[in-house]
Amino acid sequence: MDILSLISDYNYAEIRVEKRTSNTIKLNDNELSVSSGTLTGISARVLEKGSWGFSSSNDLSDLNSLLKRAQRIAKLNNGSVSLPESSPIKATVNIQTDIHNHSIEEKTKWVLNSVKEMKSDKLKNKIINLSEFDTHKEFYSSYGSEIYQQQVHIYLSASATVRENSILQRGHERAASTDTYKKINFELVAEEASEQAHRLLGAKSPPKGKFKIVIDPELTGVFSHEALGHATEADSIIERESILAGKLDTKIGNELVTIIDDPSAKDFGFYVYDDEGVEAKAATLVQNGVLKSYLNSKETGKRLNLKFNGHCRAEDFGSFPIVRMANTYFQPHDASIEEVMEIKEGYYLKGMRGGSVDIFSGGFMFKAEEAYEIKNGEIGAIIRDTALSGNILEALNNVELVGKDFGTSPGICGKFGQSAPVSDGGPHIRVDGIKLG
Which residues of 127-164 are buried (b: 16+ CB within 10 A; e: fewer)? Predict the structure, then answer.
């Protein structure tokens, strides 16, 4: 079937075809589950009368009816959506990967061997979860684009729960790759989850009040993603749901704050073309404290008169593409870790265990995986169950020092009921006036 010819007569139409093979191996204490599968499907998105119509199916031969259905849905409304003109893209993206070089039995053995690192009489529960996806996508548009793209995602997580008397604590660690298992250290991930849980058994209760804090690269990344990144997604800007609406080229933080989102970085949010067939490009969100850009789709870019930057993704063929982050990074500066830690009295927070952000008011609350006292620049006693909260703009203006180190962490981001692989990261940074409790 010549898909380009089929959709050429539409005002605007695009077709996405997807085939995804997956393997999932989960060990929960002594219960092992292994599953494999293949999901294939197709979707059509049509723009008519300023409105979108969308339809999808698992039947690849259903294209004609999908297009007609999407067109009928679009014609039900009179909308204001328009798209910028764009040149057709012809491209093929293949990943050099080793995921098919290893059998499911070999991968299962890796999972079973890794749990041997979790040894303790205090251990009450241990979970190792390995997920592997190999996705082949095809994209066609009535502008003449034809893109073939492979994406690979390997995600390993481990959690350990320990108990001592009435105290119950949990440790968690993860690793990810977009090409090879050589980047995944199963034993190290399991070991760190177990060791973190045991460290927390001896932790003190959290302090209450406002303090100077140092946050590690993982928590710096989470802050960049949750507190800043979601507020720069252009659909939220258009709906006036974001505290950053109308603030382009406005100072929102101090000169130490530079944050980017880069889908082309070889991290867990990596891709070459988004699900609108747009080449992925790095976007500088904040530069030296000034808000410089938003994350855009074709539609939001046209409405805001901004360049679209390839930040529109769908969870799978059955989902409508939406504005998403990819790899969100707080950029390093020139301070050593020792300089960042040079506090007379404060706290060092590591990792993130849940939280929430209100992008309308700018309020945020995160819970750190671990926290430590800092006295005269030295790390002291460990603290458990530490939550930090504040306001996005206040926190960005209260950054005191930014390290020259850099680290990233993988994750799965949820938005509008859709999940997408992402990474975030940055250096150690010091911030004043953060509320702990």
Answer: bbbbbbbbbbbbbbbbbebbbebebbbbbbbbbbbbee
Q: What is the C-alpha to C-alpha distance for residues 149 and 80, in angstroms, rounded to an integer?
A: 31
Rg of the chain over Cα atoms, rounded to whole angstroms, equals 23
Per-residue DSSP letters for 181-216? GGG--HHHHHHHHHHHHHHHHTPBPPP-EEEEEEE-
Q: b/e string for 285-313 if b means 16 or more Cβ within 10 A?
A: bbbebbbbbbbbbbbbbbbbebebbbbbb
CA distance 189 to 128: 9
* Sequence spans of domains, the chain: 3-201, 209-436
Strands (E), 65-145: 90-93, 123-141
Closest of 147, 153, 149 to residue 136, by C-alpha? 149
Q: Whole-angstrom Cα distance, residue 324 to residue 10?
A: 27
Amino acid in position 351: G
Residue with tokens 């710096």: 220
Asked if residues 225 and 364 have their Cβ atoms less than 8 Å apart, the reply is no
What is 302-349 written as a DSSP string? HHHT----S-EE-SSTTS--EE---EEEEPP-SB-HHHHT--SEEEEE
Q: Would you put residue 256 in left (φ > 0), alpha (ψ -120 to 50) or beta?
A: alpha
In this model, does residue 1 exceed pLDDT 80?
no
Take residue 407 and report the two structure tokens written for it.
């680290």
Write down how long the chain is: 437
Sheet of 290-291, strand order: 290-291, 283-287, 259-261, 327-330, 418-426, 407-415
Half-sphere exposure of 309 (CA within 13 A, CB side): 24
Contact 230, 245 (CB under 8 A): no
**What pLDDT digit, counting tens, does each position of 176-198 carry?**
999 999 999 999 999 999 999 99
Topology of domain 3-201 in CATH is PmbA/TldD fold (3.30.2290)
Task: Report the pLDDT value the prediction gives residue 119, as an integer from 0 to 100.
Answer: 85
pLDDT tens for residues 367-406? 999 999 999 999 999 999 999 999 999 999 999 999 999 9
The token pair that represents 139 in the structure block: 């994209």
pLDDT tens-place string over residues 193-242: 999 999 999 999 999 999 999 999 999 999 999 989 999 999 999 999 99
